[in-house]
Amino acid sequence: MNADLASLKQGFGFGRFFRRDESASGPLELTRRRVFILPTQRGLSLVYTIVLLLLVALIYNNNLVYGLAFFLASLFFVSILHTYRALAGLVVKTGYAAPVFAGESAGLSLTVSNPTDTRRHALSAHLENESVFDLEARQSKTLTLYMRTQQRGWHSIGAITLASHYPLGLFRAWSPLRFSDRILVYPKPARDVVPFPDASGSDAAGQSVSDRGGQDDFIGTREYQAGDLLRQIHWKAYAKGQGLLSKQYAGESVGTELWLDYGQAFGERTEDRLSRLCRWILDADTAGLRYGLRLPGCRIPPDHGASHRARCLKALALFEGERS
Length: 324
Prior knowledge:
The chain is of the alpha+beta class. It has helices at 2-10, 41-60, 63-85, 235-239, 270-287, 306-317; strands spanning 28-29, 36-39, 91-94, 100-101, 105-113, 120-126, 130-135, 140-148, 153-156, 159-164, 171-178, 182-186, 202-203, 206-207, 218-223, 245-249, 257-261, 290-295, 298-303.
């Protein structure tokens, strides 16, 4: 206990409340330099009560009131140490944060470990939501904290606050933790479903529906599905109010390679075009198509699968064109 008091005294200084720690990439241990502690409103009320009792005892020379005042004062000072020890020695590290689309809440995995033989009570971790938990001796607990996202690109996770009011709520000990982890945010997909741009050219795998001319016979129409090309749309039926239909041809190829081009994504603003490309990527992935992506200064060859989808979305997220 004497060592804890000495450590607490040595680490105290008003400059600690204004110093900003550097971001860390690995686990952080809550040492005396990382734990801050101040009285709560309840604690200040107790101080006021102690002062009032001392004045009464002094005026009336009442030993019982003196004893009550000293008992409350000792409770007040002992609570400082116990509140400090609720956090001291804990080890905190972050986990993987999956990419999200702009406007969604990103979930960050946070693991809090207790390497000591002392059980920790009433801990709380706060980012934009708060999670309250207890931690057994020699155990760890993994939490998920959330933060809102607004724009695409890399987002820093900001300060995570670990705090405790244990045992009596007279003091609040807290530790603001800053990690260097970042969360990748994709553009927000366009809401409306629009046919893909026409496939251009042909390759060894097969020709696109739009370039086959009259090689295949028209056999009917069906409801539009994600993956249908623009020239497959039955515009006359759409004009008559019959809904969005696609033309079907005999021997229709399913091996079409699709190019999603920034220049073909309509929109007045850069973000509108990226939003449209994002929707096309998701629809093409759902339809199982092979698709490529063309951006100014970036070209991703046609492919398919989860890794290709992630690569294309990352290219959109980090596109350095003018943001408007």
